[in-house]
Design goal:
The protein is α/β, with parallel strands linked by helices. It contains 19 helices and nine strands. Helix content is 53%, strand content 10%. The strands form two sheets. The chain has a six-stranded parallel β-sheet with strand order 1-3-4-5-2-6, with helices on one face. It has a three-stranded antiparallel β-sheet with strand order 7-9-8. Bound molecules: adenosine-5'-triphosphate and magnesium ion. One of its GO terms (molecular function) is ADP binding.
Length: 444
């Protein structure tokens, strides 16, 4: 359990890092990269290079002799000091400046989720901070529970508390109830207190936003149905055409193929959010009190098995703690696949007969689950062609496979030049355990 003192210390470090990153961006055109951030953090806590190396995947000599000297020079340059700012004086110097400059707080409209725990994601945050000043639209997608909302909530918190990147305001809007564009626009008018200024329609809203610097997040975009998406595409095109300085972040469990037409634009980017890296995921095991996670190959195997998904790993660690006395070794004697309640309900929505997957999509997933459970190896594309080409044409099959991949339901690997398909273990478990396979005639 983290003590309050430790939390304050951490948030002081986060503020310092935010300020250093802002300065680095304005003076050097970039943020600190992942490895510089590791050295900065280590130096902040007075760690030796040996300790920093133990906590990372980099060699001690590389951190000490290559990364650190360049970082001290960079800090000296961005703070405009005569010489370098080295390891020993870093913390006192940077804290003093943070206090002196003071931290402006930017208003957040709407309610980002609370952040209960947050590990890793330094690279993703640095990337997002660079993108929000360059892009008009960022589409963040990834499977349920992978940490999309938490990541963007963290970004909001850092921007709001840190030196403003010149943003006037930040807006958090959930669209998980599937509003039409008109409903969304009316709701944004209300949140921004624009009622009465202009007609509450798309053009009016965009006129109001055109010259402002803002960040608007629409969370839960997967709830926007196929029929509504056409209007949303028009709205987005209009938005990126007209808005000069603001950025819209869309978050979704799936990648909509309709978006592909927008991707040629330089002011749009898409980010597929993957799971946590091994080190950060280990912190979940630590926080749940597992006794034998350190240095164990089984802990790494579990993290990879669950694709670093923090929701799955948290649920798993709680089960291990509750039923196996916190021992991964003991759990391994009976190893099984657990599905968190969060994913279970996401799958139920997806596999529901209405509004979820297409019939063909379900059929492919069920077939893959059945094949993989028999053979325990990926299914190659020619196998799928052989099975499905009798009932559909090639382009429909390819499009459906792309769709399923965009929903993180299937995974594609290239093996000896051929596309091969697998299912993430939790998807396979869900499909097999829900008896979706029965009655399809696919499972022998
Ligand atoms: N970086 C992280 N470190 C530790 N825990 C995390 C991290 N990111 C997410 N989590 C945990 O995982 C859970 C799910 O995260 P989050 O709600 O952000 O997922 P999501 O991708 O938005 O899911 P959904 O698609 O269902 O909205 C949260 O309860 C959070 O505590
Ligand atoms: Mg979310």
């Amino acid at each position: 359990m983290r003590t309050q003192g430790k939390q304050e210390e951490d948030s002081e470090l986060e503020l310092a890092l935010t300020m250093v990153n802002e300065l680095a961006l304005s003076k050097k055109g970039r943020y600190l990269n992942e490895i510089e951030t590791i050295v900065f953090r280590g130096a902040w806590y007075g760690q030796s290079y040996e300790k920093m190396a133990q906590n990372s995947t980099y060699a001690q000599s590389y951190l000490h002799n290559t990364v650190a000297p360049d970082l001290w020079k960079l800090l000296g340059e961005i703070f405009g000091t005569e010489g370098r700012i080295g390891k020993r004086e870093l913390r006192s110097y940077v804290s003093r400046i943070v206090k002196k400059v003071g931290l402006s707080s930017i208003p957040i409209l709407g309610e980002p989720p609370d952040i209960c725990s947050f590990y890793g994601r330094e690279g993703e945050l640095a990337n997002l901070k660079a993108q929000i000043v360059q892009k008009r639209l960022i589409y963040v997608y990834g499977e349920a529970g992978i940490g999309k909302s938490t990541l963007i909530a963290k970004l909001f918190a850092q921007i709001s508390q840190g030196l403003s990147q010149g943003f006037d305001f930040l807006v958090w809007k959930s669209v998980c109830y599937g509003p039409d564009v008109e409903e969304l626009v009316a709701s944004l008018y209300k949140m921004l207190n624009l009622e009465g200024d202009e007609k509450a329609n798309v053009s009016g809203l965009i006129n109001q936003l055109r010259w402002r610097r803002f960040l608007i997040v629409l969370d839960g975009f997967e709830a926007i149905n196929t029929k509504q998406r056409r209007d949303y595409m028009k709205f987005l095109l209009h938005f990126i055409e007209e808005v000069v300085d603001g950025c819209l972040i869309l978050m979704s469990r799936e990648f909509f193929l309709e978006l592909s037409v927008l991707l040629n634009s330089r002011c749009i980017s898409t980010i597929k959010l993957e799971g946590l890296d091994i080190q950060s995921a280990m912190q979940i095991f630590e926080s749940k009190g597992l006794s034998d996670y350190k240095g164990g190959s089984k802990a790494i195997e579990l993290i990879e098995y669950y694709r670093g998904n923090p929701t799955e790993l948290t649920a798993l660690a709680e089960k291990i703690s509750c039923f196996f006395g916190g021992s991964i070794e003991k759990f391994y004697e009976y190893k099984t696949t657990f599905i968190s309640d969060h994913s279970q309900s996401a799958f139920q929505q997806l596999f529901a007969l209405e509004g979820g997957l297409s019939d063909f999509g379900r059929e492919i997933v069920i077939y893959l689950a059945s094949e993989i459970s028999k053979e325990s190896k990926p299914v190659d594309f020619s196998n799928l062609l052989g099975i499905f080409s009798r009932k559909t044409d090639l382009s429909t099959l390819v499009r459906e496979l792309e769709n399923l991949e965009g929903q993180s339901l299937i995974e594609k690997k290239n093996i000896s030049g051929e596309a091969c398909y697998m299912l993430p273990p939790v998807v396979k478990k869900y499909v097999l355990s829900q008896a979706l396979v029965q009655g399809t005639g696919l499972r022998k």
